[in-house]
Amino acid sequence: MFRKYINDNILTKRYRDSIESYGYFESKYKKLSEEIQNALKSAELWESISQAETNIHYSKKKHGSTMLENINPEIVLHHCNHIFKEGFLLLKDL
To answer: Between the CA atoms of 79, 85, 91 and 94, what dihedral angle is there, to the nearest 10 degrees?
Structure first.
Protein backbone atom coordinates (compact mmCIF):
# COMPACT_ATOMS: atom_id res chain seq x y z
CA MET A 1 0.00 0.00 0.00
CA PHE A 2 2.68 2.53 0.99
CA ARG A 3 5.05 1.52 -1.81
CA LYS A 4 2.22 2.02 -4.31
CA TYR A 5 1.55 5.48 -2.87
CA ILE A 6 5.25 6.43 -3.21
CA ASN A 7 5.43 5.06 -6.76
CA ASP A 8 2.20 6.73 -7.91
CA ASN A 9 2.40 10.07 -6.10
CA ILE A 10 6.04 10.87 -5.42
CA LEU A 11 8.19 9.01 -7.92
CA THR A 12 5.57 8.83 -10.67
CA LYS A 13 6.35 6.93 -13.87
CA ARG A 14 9.12 9.39 -14.67
CA TYR A 15 11.33 8.55 -11.66
CA ARG A 16 10.21 5.04 -10.68
CA ASP A 17 13.11 3.42 -12.54
CA SER A 18 15.39 6.44 -12.42
CA ILE A 19 15.54 7.43 -8.76
CA GLU A 20 18.92 9.11 -9.18
CA SER A 21 17.31 11.73 -11.42
CA TYR A 22 14.79 12.77 -8.77
CA GLY A 23 15.30 16.18 -7.23
CA TYR A 24 14.68 19.43 -9.07
CA PHE A 25 11.13 20.61 -9.69
CA GLU A 26 10.54 24.13 -11.00
CA SER A 27 14.07 25.16 -9.89
CA LYS A 28 13.50 23.89 -6.34
CA TYR A 29 15.30 20.84 -4.94
CA LYS A 30 13.22 18.19 -3.17
CA LYS A 31 14.98 15.48 -1.19
CA LEU A 32 13.36 12.12 -1.86
CA SER A 33 13.92 11.03 1.75
CA GLU A 34 12.02 14.08 3.03
CA GLU A 35 9.17 13.48 0.59
CA ILE A 36 8.86 9.89 1.83
CA GLN A 37 8.97 11.00 5.48
CA ASN A 38 6.25 13.58 4.82
CA ALA A 39 4.12 10.94 3.11
CA LEU A 40 4.55 8.63 6.09
CA LYS A 41 3.53 11.37 8.51
CA SER A 42 0.35 12.10 6.59
CA ALA A 43 -0.60 8.54 5.69
CA GLU A 44 -3.81 7.09 7.10
CA LEU A 45 -1.94 4.16 8.62
CA TRP A 46 -0.56 6.51 11.31
CA GLU A 47 -4.00 7.48 12.62
CA SER A 48 -3.95 4.57 15.07
CA ILE A 49 -0.37 5.18 16.26
CA SER A 50 0.40 7.50 19.15
CA GLN A 51 1.80 10.96 18.39
CA ALA A 52 5.11 10.11 20.11
CA GLU A 53 5.78 7.38 17.56
CA THR A 54 5.24 9.53 14.49
CA ASN A 55 8.53 11.43 14.71
CA ILE A 56 9.92 9.69 11.64
CA HIS A 57 13.25 10.71 10.24
CA TYR A 58 16.23 9.33 8.41
CA SER A 59 19.77 10.32 9.21
CA LYS A 60 22.61 9.09 7.02
CA LYS A 61 24.87 9.34 10.07
CA LYS A 62 22.54 7.32 12.34
CA HIS A 63 20.87 4.94 9.89
CA GLY A 64 23.13 4.81 6.85
CA SER A 65 25.25 1.82 7.82
CA THR A 66 22.20 -0.28 8.69
CA MET A 67 20.56 0.66 5.40
CA LEU A 68 23.68 -0.27 3.44
CA GLU A 69 23.87 -3.66 5.17
CA ASN A 70 20.33 -4.45 4.07
CA ILE A 71 20.22 -3.38 0.44
CA ASN A 72 20.40 -5.77 -2.46
CA PRO A 73 22.70 -4.23 -5.11
CA GLU A 74 20.90 -6.08 -7.92
CA ILE A 75 17.62 -4.37 -6.96
CA VAL A 76 19.32 -0.99 -6.58
CA LEU A 77 20.89 -1.42 -10.02
CA HIS A 78 17.41 -1.72 -11.54
CA HIS A 79 16.27 1.61 -10.03
CA CYS A 80 19.56 3.54 -9.99
CA ASN A 81 21.00 2.94 -13.41
CA HIS A 82 23.03 6.11 -13.89
CA ILE A 83 25.59 6.90 -11.19
CA PHE A 84 25.26 3.65 -9.21
CA LYS A 85 25.47 1.36 -12.23
CA GLU A 86 29.02 2.27 -13.26
CA GLY A 87 30.46 1.78 -9.76
CA PHE A 88 28.51 -1.40 -9.15
CA LEU A 89 29.68 -3.01 -12.37
CA LEU A 90 33.30 -2.08 -11.66
CA LEU A 91 33.13 -3.58 -8.17
CA LYS A 92 31.26 -6.65 -9.34
CA ASP A 93 34.10 -7.50 -11.74
CA LEU A 94 36.80 -7.37 -9.03
So the answer is: 110
Q: How many CB atoms within 10 Å of residue 9?
A: 10
pLDDT of residue 29: 94
Report CA 57 to chain centroid distance, whole Å: 12
Element (H, E) at 29: strand 28-29
Check residue 24 and report its DSSP letter: E
* Phi, psi of 22, deg, nearest 5: -70, 140
Q: Model confidence at 80, in pLDDT bands (50, 70, 90)?
A: confident
Q: Can you give the pLDDT at residue 12? A: 93
Say if CB 22 and CB 11 are below 8 A apart: yes
Distance CA 48, CA 40 (A): 13
Phi-psi region for residue 8, left (φ > 0), alpha (ψ -120 to 50) or beta? alpha
